[in-house]
Each structure stands twice: as structure tokens, then as C-alpha cells.
Amino acid sequence: MTVESQAPESKFAFVVIAARRARQLMSGAMPLVANPRSHKPTRVAVEELGAGVLEYQLPLTPAEIEEGKRRKE
User: Fewer Cβ within 10 Å of end Cβ, the chain: N or C?
Assistant: First the structure.
């Protein structure tokens, strides 16, 4: 897995990552952007993703796993 900092291309991944970050913000985490436009955790999370300051890891796809197995052989 690689750590990414730009917004994911998949809309589903974008929503999942933003939701996880929003939960962190609701639990008391500090925003990673200075002066967020909103105080709502979901909007702050989306702003962080758009700004590229949020790091996340996406799981490998089955094709990537298969390719990794082939390289080891």
C-alpha cells in the first residue's frame, strides 16, 4: 500500500475517506487546514481532501495483488 495525499479518483473512496476523517474531527481531532470555511466536520474533511493535506492508504486491488505475486516468482 502506498500513502496518498491527493484526493482519490473513485467517488466511493472519496466518501469513505472523508467520512472517516469527519469521525476523527467529531472526536476532537484538530483540522489540518488553517481557517476552515465551515465548522461542520464533514465539510472540513472534504476541504482537507481537496487541499491535499490528508494522508490515507487505499487497499490493493486484486489485480495489484496478483501482479505482486508474479514479481516474487
Answer: C
pLDDT above 90 for 17: yes
Q: Which of 58, 65, 62, 41 is nearest to 6 (CA)?
A: 58
Query: Would the pLDDT of 2 be above 60?
Result: no
CATH code of domain 3-72 = 3.90.940
Distances (CA, A) of 14 to 5, 7, 18, 37: 12, 7, 6, 19
Q: Is 52 left (phi over 0), alpha (psi -120 to 50) or beta?
A: left
